[in-house]
Amino acid sequence: MKNWLNENVLVLNRLWQAVNVITARRAFTLLCMQHAKVVSVTEGNFQTFELMEWADFSAGHIGDDVVHSVKFKFRVPRVILLMFYDTLPHKEVKFTRHNIFERDDNKCQYCGRKFDRRELNLDHVIPRDMGGSTTWENIVCSCIACNTKKANCTPTQAGLTLIKKPKKPKWRPFVSVAIEDVYHQDWSHFIDLAYWHIDLGQEIK
């Protein structure tokens, strides 16, 4: 039997911007605390409901996407609106191999060609032997051929040129995820379907 409390719910901030995806269990907690309202989308029209209003609205629902309390039936919400949160989440980008590949778009920063990640190295622009640090500003993706040519030299010494200066990326409030993993049709009113941008890592307190 499906546990509907584990369903994904889209979270909007007070400005109706998509900021997170949480479980229905967490959504009901926020509704009980009166920190959020349910957003219902019907033929492009939006309505908001407090928890008990949502129970009344759910009473006539036909479908198995419901959860029950002792006295009430609640349809699983697909979108909720936070009442006291009007900013986008802020978070530092972790300095990881994956995020360097993301920043550089899997392209060698010397020749500009795109590669499978298995064919890319992480190169110190200023070699460590010359005092180069392992930081956002000194690490770039490099293909095997360019990495071999560069060896333990600076780009200038090796006759190479960086296609762009490496820098620490600003954290994007939205992160691309696979639509089929979490998408519900009601979300299409609040998100860009061409490039999915929902951060799944940050809990709304």
Q: Indicate the structural class.
A: alpha+beta
Please state the overall shape, judged from the principal axes of the Cα atoms.
elongated
Strand order, sheet with most strands: 2-1-7-3-4
Question: How many individual domains?
Answer: 2
Total beta-strand segments = 9
Mean pLDDT score, rounded? Answer: 81
Largest sheet: 5 strands, mixed
Percent strand equals 15-25%
Topology pattern, helix = H, strand = E: EEHEEHEEEHEEHHH
What do you see in this structure?
The chain is α+β, with helices and mostly antiparallel strands. It contains 6 helices and 9 strands. The protein folds into 2 domains: 4-88 and 172-189, no CATH class; 97-158, DNA Binding (I), subunit A, CATH 1.10.30. 19% of the residues lie in helices and 21% in strands. The longest helix has 9 residues, at 24-32. The two termini are 29 Å apart. Residues 173-180 and 193-205 have low confidence and may be disordered.
